[in-house]
Fold this protein.
Amino acid sequence: MRIIFLGTGGGLPTPKRNLPATALQIGSEIVLFDCGEGTQRQFMSSNASFMKVQKIFITHFHGDHFLGLPGLIQSMNFIGRKKKLEIYGPPGIVEIVDRVVNLGYFSPGFEISAMELKSGESLHFDGYDVFAVAVDHLVPAFGYVLKEATRPGRFLPEKAKMLGLKEGPLFRALQKGRNVKVDGKLITPEMVTGPPRPGIKIAISGDTRPCDRFAKAAENSDLIIHEATLDSSLREQATDYGHSTAMEAAMIALRARASTLYLNHISNRYEDASILENEARMVFPNTFIAEDLMEITLRHRKE
Ligand SMILES: [Zn+2]
Ligand SMILES: [Zn+2]
């Protein structure tokens, strides 16, 4: 799975950081989380095409998180998109999408569906689930957790040989999930495979104060992408505006026993965000600052 940070700023864009948007590539599909103004242009500077976006999840309706929708949708139309686009978000998304789709003289030549989610709701797609969890911001806001489907266990040739099988057609039949017989004895694929392998889990906080519900939903994530608008010296201000400090984000990652933490939604006041990285690493060493157009690839954990 590939993660492309398209916009890692928050509130105001800067020359180095555009407004929030994070793309996840799963197979040939791109799932987009938030769509700040200018997201379509960020796509053009990346190795991903916005025409591959099939689903967009909006965390909340502060302008920095969704004002890229009208331009993105109109450009998709301009390039001749025919495939349906699905947009999900907190209550209000249906009305917002309706307005976006009817701005100016525009009318889309492809279907756009909008769906309001409830906190705790889980959506099942082909190969992965997305879970919405209400977080603690000034307005109704969601964090999202994407979890790949569990994959079947790995075929264990040694085990098969111990049961009297030889490499060849019977091996292949078992690998394809079929039962076989050796000397009249039934051998099922379960007898010669390892335990099921969990899929990759990624949690995206959106804008929030440190939030118990989010920490719980993000438990054992391979990756948490958490907002860290400010550093700890500005904790009071972070509290007033419904944001987290870098250290608070790190404490969430620690509690959730995540593998890796990336910080985004970096305030425009930080020319150099290493102050955020340093304070977070005191709590959660495997922390990194997300930068615009940075790409990371997540691999499945070794069994
Ligand atoms: Zn924001
Ligand atoms: Zn916000």
User: Anything to note?
Assistant: The chain is about 25% helix and 25% strand. The mean pLDDT is 95. The chain has two domains: 2-151+197-297, 157-192.
